[in-house]
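Entry:
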Amino acid sequence: MSYTVSRGNEPGAVLTPHLHEDGKYVASMSRFEQDYVRVESIRELGILAQHGFSVRMSSPTSTNHRAPSLISPSSLQIVFRGAGR
């Protein structure tokens, strides 16, 4: 799962799901913490994104995108890998 920044200070930067201090990834229908759904795997995150949830994404190697941004599901690039795929 990734998002490529298209404008701003660092176009072309690639964001990936942000791993929070508690070891979880976050999906949400709004920007408010009370609406966060915390999951343990990127696969679970992808399933939530397919159901309309936005995903907190960041790039630890970027100077402009270290803080997690909430990226809408229509902007995400999601590839599922698994049995038979």
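Helices lie at 42-50.
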